[in-house]
Design a protein that fits this description.
Helix content: under 10%
CATH architecture: Sandwich
Radius of gyration: 16 Å
Distance between the termini: 39 Å
Largest sheet: 7 strands, antiparallel
CATH class: Mainly Beta
Number of helices: 1
CATH topology: Jelly Rolls
Structural class: mainly beta
Shape: globular
Length: about 210
């Protein structure tokens, strides 16, 4: 895993004024989820397998494309969730049971950074039923984990875009080239000493009014 010398270093931000004020997002170089109840590593995927309604470990991760295997930067070289040629929509993540998430994180990479570790421009929406609960614009590094804590949402919609300008346009039809691996659902447990390291910058975030 990359950045071993920074194990547990975390960027975290809480939403102010959101309908669920307890929701926060973070990026980290390792998972912050303990007491795991659901997980997916995607190691059983094969090229050209449909990703529409894909289910694993009690999770449904879905986009209307087929799977494409490649060595995504920052990941371990095993299979991960990635749409061939990218997708013209966000990736949907939910529990098969339909229940709300409490805490969840996932390791991410991007087809926009195909050779070396680089910056990812993420757009994330959290829904509870038909209601948009929270919305985030996050700059992350390929291979990092991105997480969401506090509960009160049952659907995550996530995408990675070629530039911050495209991401910030919030165009659902813009090409999304996110790669997702190692999803864990459970309880948020910061690594010892991670909060003592101090904030390393706020995650950019927006909430639709």
């Amino acid at each position: 895993m990359k950045n071993q010398g920074l194990l547990g270093l975390m960027t975290i931000a809480a939403i102010v004024g959101a309908s669920n004020a307890d929701i926060a997002t973070y990026t980290s170089d390792s998972t912050m989820i303990g007491d795991v109840t659901n997980s997916a590593d995607f190691n059983g995927l094969v090229d050209e397998q449909s990703l529409d309604g894909y289910q694993e470990g009690g999770l449904e991760v879905s986009v209307s494309r087929d799977y494409y295997s490649w060595n995504a930067p920052g990941l371990d070289g095993s299979e991960m969730f990635y749409a061939s040629t990218g997708a013209l929509e966000l990736v949907d993540i939910s529990l098969v049971s339909g229940e709300d998430f409490s805490d969840i994180d996932m390791q991410i990479s991007s087809g926009w950074s195909p050779i070396a570790v680089g910056t990812m421009y993420l757009w994330v929406q959290l829904y509870d039923g038909e209601s948009l609960v929270s919305e985030f614009d996050i700059d992350a590094t390929t291979g990092e984990y991105v997480g969401f804590t506090g509960g009160g949402f049952d659907l995550i919609r996530i995408g990675s875009y070629a530039s911050s300008e495209i991401r910030d346009s919030h165009d659902e039809n813009a090409r999304n080239a996110i790669a997702i691996d190692n999803i864990s659902v459970g309880t948020f447990v910061p690594a010892p000493g991670s909060l003592a390291l101090g904030f390393v910058g706020l995650v950019a975030m927006r909430r639709r009014r």
